[in-house]
Amino acid sequence: MNIWPLTAEPAVSVGGVSLTEIAGRFGTPAYVVDEEHVRVRCREYAKAMAPHEVAYAAKAFWCRAMARWIAEEGLSLDVCSEGELAVARAGGFPADRILLHGIGKTPNELSAALGYGVGRIVVDSSGEVRQLAARSVAAPTGGRQKVLVRVTPGVDAHVHRAVTTGTEDQQFGLSIASGAAADVAHRILRQPSLELAGVHCHIGSQITSLDGFEAAARRLVAFMAGLGGLPELNLGGGHAVPYRPGEDGLDITAFAERVTSAVEQECAAHDIPVPRLTIEPGRAIIGAAGVTLYRVLAVKHGARTFVVVDGGMSDNPRPALYGSRYHIERAGARTTAGTEPVTVVGRHCEAGDVLVPDARLPADLRPGDLLTVPCTGAYHHAMASNYNHLTRPPVIAVHQGRAWPLIRRETAADMLHRDVG
Ligand SMILES: *Cc1c(COP(=O)(O)O)cnc(C)c1O
User: Fold this and answer.
1) Which H/E stretch holds residue 98?
2) Could you write out the DSSP letters of every residue in 217-266?
3) Is residue 349 flagged as an active site residue?
4) What whole-number distance in Å separates Cα of residue 268 and Cα of residue 271?
C-alpha cells in the first residue's frame, strides 16, 4: 500500500502542484490535502461495502470542504461534538446521514443534534436514555429519535493502549458481559420517543488484522439476537493505513468479504434477519491524502545529528502520544548526495518533541531546505495545539494543478482575540 497521496509524485508534487511552490505560496509548516485521494478512497469504501453504509469519522480531519466532499461521495458522517456538528451544518451535510457519538454528551450537544435532526444518536451510558427521551419529545420533528447502543464486545484489537476501545477495561460503551448493554437496550425499548435501531462498537484504531472485527461482529450479532434482532449493526472504524514504506494497511475488500459473511453466518445460526452494516473509517479515508511540509531551521551535529524543523508536537502530537513512526524526505528535486542517519525534532521546549527519531536525510541538508512527511491527513490538524503559542498551520487543498487554502494559518492576533482578561 502506498504512503503518499494517489496523485503524488513522492516528495515532489501532489495534485499536480509542486511542494516547493505550495511552501513558497502558503509558508511552512503547512498541511497539504489531496482532494482526489479523499474522493477515490470514499468511492473504494462505498463500493466494497455496498449495499451497506460507510460513515466518515469527522474527528480524523474536519472542515466545511471535507463535509461537501463526503456528502457528494454519498457517505454518511460520524460526529462526536457540538463543534463537529456545527461544521457539518455549515457545510450543508444532510442531517439524516449524521450519527452523533460521545462517551459524555453535553446537554447543549444533545439539543443541537436533535434540533438539526441527526439520523441516529449512539447511546454510551444509561443516564443518556432518560435525557434523550425527555428531549426527543420536544424535538421539532416530533417523531421517534433513532438510537444505537454502543456496546463493549470484549475484543482486544492489539493496538496502542490509548486507542484500544473494545476491551472491558476501558471507558467506552456498555458491557455485553456484565449485562449493562442489555439493560440499556431495554430502557430504550420502553421509551415511546426513542427507536432502538441497532448496536454499535468501535474496537480501536490503526488495526491491520481482520480477526478482531470478525470476533466483534459475531458477538454483536449474538447480542442482537437476544433482543430479537435489530435493523442496524455498526462496527465502527479503526482501519489501518501504512505510515512508512513496507507497512500494511487494512484491505477494505477483504474486510467487507470476511465481515459480511461472518454476520450472515451468525444471523442464520441465531435465526434473525441480516442487519444493515455501517462502518466508520476516519484515518483510512483521509490519512494518506495528506502530507506536511516543514522548513529546516537548524542542523546540529554532535553525538547525534539533530535536524530542527519549524513545527513539531503542536502540529503532530502522535509521536509523543503513541510513539508513532513516520517517514520523512527532503522535498523537491532528488539529490545525488548520500544520506545520513538523523533525528528530526520540532522546535518546542521539550526533549520529547521528536518527530522522527530514525530518519535518513541527505548529508548536504541545510537550514532553509524543505522537508515533507507523508500520511499526515488524519489526526494531525485535528489534534494540533498552540503549545508554546505556535500558530496552527494552514490546510491547503490541491486538485488538478490548483492549490487553495481550506483552513488559513492561525495568527498571533487569533490567539490574542481569545485572551480577553
Ligand atoms: C475514532 C472513531 C472512529 C474512526 O477511527 P479511525 O481509526 O480513524 O478509523 C470511528 N468511530 C468511532 C466511534 C470512533 O471513536
Assistant:
1) strand 98-100
2) HHHHHHHHHTTT--SEEE----B----STT-----HHHHHHHHHHHHHHH
3) yes
4) 5
- What is the model's pLDDT at position 139? 57
Closest ligand 1 atom to residue 165 Cα is 15
Ranking 154-168, 174-188, 235-249, 308-322 by mean pLDDT, the lowest is 154-168
C-alpha cell at 7: 496523485
Give pLDDT tens digits for 38-56.
999 999 999 999 999 999 9
Identify the CATH assignment for 62-281 out of 3.90.1150.10, 3.20.20.10, 3.20.20.80, 3.30.750.24: 3.20.20.10
C-alpha distances in Å from residue 14, one per residue of 25, 62, 352, 405:
15, 20, 30, 14
Q: Could you give the percent of the chain with pLDDT greater than 90? A: 92
Calculate how far, in angstroms, residue 145's C-alpha sits from the geometric centre of ligand 1: 23
Instruction: Tell how far the Cα of 387 is from the centroid of ligand 1, in angstroms.
Output: 25
Report the predicted TM-score, pTM, of the whole model to 2 decimal places.
0.97
Query: What value does the mean pLDDT of the chain take?
Result: 96
288-418: CATH topology is Lyase, Ornithine Decarboxylase; Chain A, domain 1 (2.40.37)
Mean pLDDT to the nearest integer, 274-290: 98
